[in-house]
């Protein structure tokens, strides 16, 4: 097992998780700054956006998790603020970051859709890197697998296989699956944003579509999913959509006794909303502005 603590000075402890998340945010920021330069935007705008977006993401991630695990917190409200004890959710982080970013972007007089388009590759690269923080903490993994599956079937290097050995049991490296999915997604977004047909807002929703497709199928392997007891038809629908994965993998156990995984349901809803958004805007003629058009501020 890799020591999750990178540096312990006695008065302060620096974890690999924190270093990796910080690196993820920095790389995402640099991507946004570089693309913003094509439109004549100052780096300070994106730096300030990050300073607002990151705290908003942390708050959103915590609220999202607590909302779905309220029974664990309702009798101990102080625990809600003890985020270092664990308990955050990536979809909550995205919601929080978007809310915080929305008010900042509008305050600066820019179009929300134009800015989130620029930030989309930065978001997915942040998730690509950030998942390795889960690897360091031996969390967000899938169900049990054999050592030979990791070594001989997936041909993973020793440092990954060894880290997936938790108390003598080997687990699916779902962090790796999602990281690789996001790597391909990053390449897709970088190619899409140079296409003349792309309209404002569509790169951002393409990011959500790509990420949600991968998250839906990978989430089914995990053993720490937030879940709830839903109607049988909904559970059957989720299982039916995930069924192709059963040809290769076994689904992970539900953690909290539910029959529907929250992230899987949200992934499906996001894909539907994104497709409807792109289609309706095109059909109604609302998508006149292209990604490549100049970006201006009403406050300039």
Automatic annotation (TrEMBL):
Keywords: Cell membrane, Membrane, Transferase, Transmembrane, Transmembrane helix
EC code: 2.5.1.145
Enzyme class: transferase
Primary residence: membrane
Biological pathway: Protein modification; lipoprotein biosynthesis (diacylglyceryl transfer)
Topological category with respect to the lipid bilayer: Multi-pass membrane protein
Bilayer-spanning residue ranges: 14-33, 45-68, 80-105, 112-130, 174-192, 204-221, 262-280
Subcellular location: Cell membrane
Protein's UniProt name: Phosphatidylglycerol--prolipoprotein diacylglyceryl transferase
Source species: Paenibacillus eucommiae
Gene name linked to the record: lgt
